[in-house]
């Protein structure tokens, strides 16, 4: 069979064959683009039978070319496409074409040009504005840069414009307002400057407008209220300021309004009562205040209301949920008071309810008939009374957080009927009482069970069928009895905190043998016997704390157990071995708070204790108690990405803090070292894990207080560890500048929360420093005079490529 590669006897097929030869087709998607004869003897276009090619009825004109998702690449030539002058539709979307998009084609009547999701770069093609019949233009998801040409406002028939997800800059041209036929415009996720042009309000047919994530500033033009056919408006993730224009109530068809993640201030306009079609209202992450208008609850179409992370006050509208099919409500992180609206679940569709971090009071009785709920978060409020949830009526519930409230009456016994439950927390409800429900561990998907500081009594129920449980937190209760040996079934268990209870008997070896165990706190109980040697064989264990029990015998001589430090074992008079006193030569330590200092003084022959870093602090006798309590808490914070506080010794005038000595330098000293992207990622993840442990796994949370690159130290494996965490707060305690209400352990005050937020901000700065090889230190003053492309190019060339084996692993 003779296969002609180029000559096909008609110009259309010849042009397409030439196009095929100029682009990359590794998947052989265009394999059927070939001529299987000596030429065209029928007078018809041979290409009409090829994939992606459409012709008229007589097969004499190519009318459409659809190369969507063909895995094509390379630069797209323009000369071949210029032959297809009768094209009505051209679709090259979701490929990997690169370079500049050719714009010199001579189409006479194209209605659609779709180049979505490629790798084109350079400026947007200006020539497309000459296509008078064009109705759809989709150039989203590439790397086009520069400004949107003002000539893009000259299209005569354009109805759909999608330029989102590129690298466009400059100001949005006001000429776009001249697009009188435009119904759908997406130009967000770019890097514009300046305001939203009020002239966009002249697009009288517009139904959909999305300019989200675009660095826009200034106020929202009230003229946009002239878009009286608009159904969806998305302006989130910008830097917009000022109030929401009350005139928006004129946009009667509006169904979706998202203004979140801006700097918008003022109240929700009362005039929104006119938006009867409004389905989504998202105002989260702004600086809005005032109360929620009662009229908002009257909107019949309202399904989703997001107003979290603002400064709203007052009560929620009493009729909220009665007049609409409310599905998702999130009002968290505000200053609301009062109770949950009684009809919140009347619509029967509510599946996510987020009320946390407010000042709500009352009980949860309005939720007793919310069988549609999947997620409930009401933590950090002042709710009280019994938990009224009948779990057999909640077939789809997966997440419940009732922590930091004032609930009483215990955990409902039928919680074991919530068969899809994954997360349950009632921690920090000091008057809750009751016992742990008998079959709680058998829930098939339960991963996290947290009930610390709840005055729970009774025994631990058997750990039957606990294959999914990952976290168990029951610290500071009145639980008695032994730890069930059936805990051996909990193969996924990573963290168990049973500290400060009344547990007795031996530590079961079945607990020590669990394969994924990372964190075990059994401190302040009445446990007896020896420490199971199985703990020393664990490859995952990071922290074990058995302090203040009646454990005896010798600490197993395994490095992982020695690394816990003295604070993990103190308070057990009959326990000996490293890092405590020698079993054969006990030491009298009346004047020393921890045995770790003995190791430094005695210069133990064990390499692990040969060196330590010492920090000396002076204090007054009246500050000793409160400061030493906090130091003890810091010593209990054990994580692979934290520098360990090994111990401390003191008298009435001074104290010495003893830390792991890591001589490998800090991040600030090594920022300009060449690293591959994988190593940079590893460093950032390590820092993040350390912060996450301090903020979320320590109870109470510990703010680092001075997170910066010089406080990130590298261990022998180049793993980052945070140094000096909590030191700022410790110095405030020593100097007496911290009020009692701000002390860790007395509840998170505004001062502590502010420090936690500062840690996150400082972490962001460290990320920029790592990514830029130190160029963005001190606000990036050294690079402000350089073009962005030049800076990125420098960073790219200064970063080592990942080794091939690393890439395969990723």
UniProtKB/TrEMBL annotation:
Major location (coarse): membrane
Family annotation (Pfam families): LRR_1 (PF00560), LRR_14 (PF23598), LRR_8 (PF13855), LRRNT_2 (PF08263), PK_Tyr_Ser-Thr (PF07714)
Any one of the GO CC terms: membrane
UniProtKB keywords: Glycoprotein, Leucine-rich repeat, Membrane, Receptor, Repeat, Signal, Transmembrane, Transmembrane helix
GO biological process entries: post-embryonic development
Lipid bilayer topology: Single-pass type I membrane protein
A GO term, aspect molecular function: protein tyrosine kinase activity
Domain of life per record: Eukaryota
Compartments reported by the entry: Membrane
Residue ranges constituting the Protein kinase domain according to the UniProt record: 546-810
Gene3D superfamilies with a match to the protein in the record: Ribonuclease Inhibitor, Transferase(Phosphotransferase) domain 1
InterPro entries membership: Kinase-like_dom_sf, Leu-rich_rpt, LRR_dom_sf, LRR_N_plant-typ, LRR_R13L4/SHOC2-like, Plant_RL_S/T_kinase, Prot_kinase_dom, Ser-Thr/Tyr_kinase_cat_dom
Protein's recorded name: Dicer-like protein 4-like isoform X1
Organism: Hibiscus syriacus
Lineage, uppermost ranks: Eukaryota, Viridiplantae, Streptophyta, Embryophyta, Tracheophyta
């Amino acid at each position: 069979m003779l296969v002609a590669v180029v000559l096909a006897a008609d110009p259309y097929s010849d042009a397409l064959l030439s196009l095929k030869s100029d682009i990359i087709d590794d998947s052989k998607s265009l394999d059927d683009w070939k001529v299987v004869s000596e030429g065209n003897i029928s007078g018809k276009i041979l290409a009409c039978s090829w994939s992606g090619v459409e012709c008229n009825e007589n097969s004499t004109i190519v009318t459409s070319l659809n190369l969507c998702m063909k895995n094509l690449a390379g630069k797209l030539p323009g000369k071949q496409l210029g032959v297809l002058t009768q094209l009505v539709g051209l679709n090259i979307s979701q490929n990997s074409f690169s370079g500049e998009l050719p714009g010199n084609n001579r189409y006479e009547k194209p209605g659609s040009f779709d180049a979505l999701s490629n790798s084109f770069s350079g400026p947007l093609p200006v020539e497309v504005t000459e296509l008078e019949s064009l109705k759809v233009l989709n150039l989203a998801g590439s790397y086009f840069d520069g400004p949107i040409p003002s000539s893009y406002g000259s299209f005569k028939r354009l109805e759909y414009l999608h330029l989102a997800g590129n690298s466009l800059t400059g100001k949005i041209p006001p000429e776009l307002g001249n697009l009188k036929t435009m119904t759908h415009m997406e130009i967000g996720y770019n890097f514009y400057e300046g305001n939203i042009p009020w002239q966009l309000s002249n697009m009288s047919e517009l139904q959909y407008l999305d300019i989200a994530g675009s660095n826009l500033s200034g106020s929202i033009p009230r003229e946009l209220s002239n878009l009286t056919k608009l159904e969806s408006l998305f302006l989130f993730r910008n830097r917009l300021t000022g109030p929401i224009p009350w005139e928006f109530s004129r946009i009667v068809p509006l169904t979706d309004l998202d203004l979140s993640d801006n700097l918008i201030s003022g109240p929700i306009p009362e005039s929104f009562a006119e938006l009867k079609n409004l389905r989504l209202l998202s105002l989260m992450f702004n600086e809005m205040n005032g109360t929620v208008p009662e009229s908002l609850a009257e909107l019949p179409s309202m399904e989703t209301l997001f107003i979290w992370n603002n400064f709203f006050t007052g009560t929620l509208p009493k009729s909220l949920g009665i007049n609409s099919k409310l599905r998702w409500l999130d009002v968290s992180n505000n200053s609301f008071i009062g109770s949950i609206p009684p009809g919140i679940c009347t619509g029967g569709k509510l599946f996510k309810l987020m009320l946390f971090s407010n000042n709500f009071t009352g009980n949860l009785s309005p939720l007793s008939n919310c069988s549609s709920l999947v997620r409930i978060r009401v933590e950090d409020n002042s709710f009280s009374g019994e938990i009224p949830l009948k779990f057999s009526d909640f077939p789809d519930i997966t997440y419940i957080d009732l922590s930091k409230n004032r609930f009483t009456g215990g955990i409902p016994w039928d919680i074991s009927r919530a068969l899809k439950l994954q997360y349950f927390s009632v921690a920090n409800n000091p008057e809750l009482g009751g016992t742990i429900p008998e079959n709680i561990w058998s829930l098939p998907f339960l991963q996290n069970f947290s009930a610390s500081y709840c005055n729970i009594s009774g025994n631990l129920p058997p750990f039957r069928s606990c294959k999914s449980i990952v976290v168990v937190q029951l610290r500071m209760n009145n639980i008695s009895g032994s730890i069930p040996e059936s805990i051996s079934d909990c193969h996924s268990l990573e963290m168990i905190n049973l500290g400060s209870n009344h547990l007795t008997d031996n530590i079961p070896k079945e607990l020590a043998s669990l394969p994924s165990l990372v964190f075990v706190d059994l401190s302040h109980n009445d446990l007896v016997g020896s420490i199971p040697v199985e703990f020393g064989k664990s490859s995952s264990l990071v922290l074990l704390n058995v302090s203040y029990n009646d454990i005896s015998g010798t600490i197993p001589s395994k490095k992982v157990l020695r690394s816990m430090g003295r604070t993990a074992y103190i308070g057990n008079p009959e326990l000996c071995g490293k890092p405590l006193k020698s079993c054969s030569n006990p030491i009298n330590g009346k004047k020393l708070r921890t045995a770790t200092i003995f190791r430094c003084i005695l210069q133990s022959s064990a390499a692990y204790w040969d060196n330590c870093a010492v920090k000396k602090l002076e204090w007054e006798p009246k500050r000793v108690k409160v400061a030493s309590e906090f130091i003890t808490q810091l010593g209990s914070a054990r994580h692979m990405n934290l520098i360990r506080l090994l111990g401390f010794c003191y008298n009435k005038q001074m104290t010495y803090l003893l830390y792991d000595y890591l001589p490998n330098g800090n991040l600030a000293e090594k920022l300009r070292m060449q690293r591959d992207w994988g190593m940079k990622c590893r460093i950032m993840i390590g820092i993040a894990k350390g912060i996450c442990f301090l903020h979320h796994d320590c109870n109470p949370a510990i703010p680092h207080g001075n997170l910066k690159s010089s406080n990130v130290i590298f261990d022998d494996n180049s793993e980052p560890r945070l140094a000096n965490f909590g030191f700022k707060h410790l110095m405030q305690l020593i100097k007496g500048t911290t009020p009692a209400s701000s002390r860790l352990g007395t509840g998170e005050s505004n001062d502590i929360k502010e420090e936690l937020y500062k840690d996150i901000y400082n972490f962001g700065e460290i990320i920029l420093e790592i990514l830029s090889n130190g160029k963005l230190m001190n606000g990036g003053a050294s690079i402000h005079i350089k073009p962005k492309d030049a800076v990125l190019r420098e960073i790219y060339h200064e970063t080592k490529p990942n080794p091939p084996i690393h890439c395969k692993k990723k």
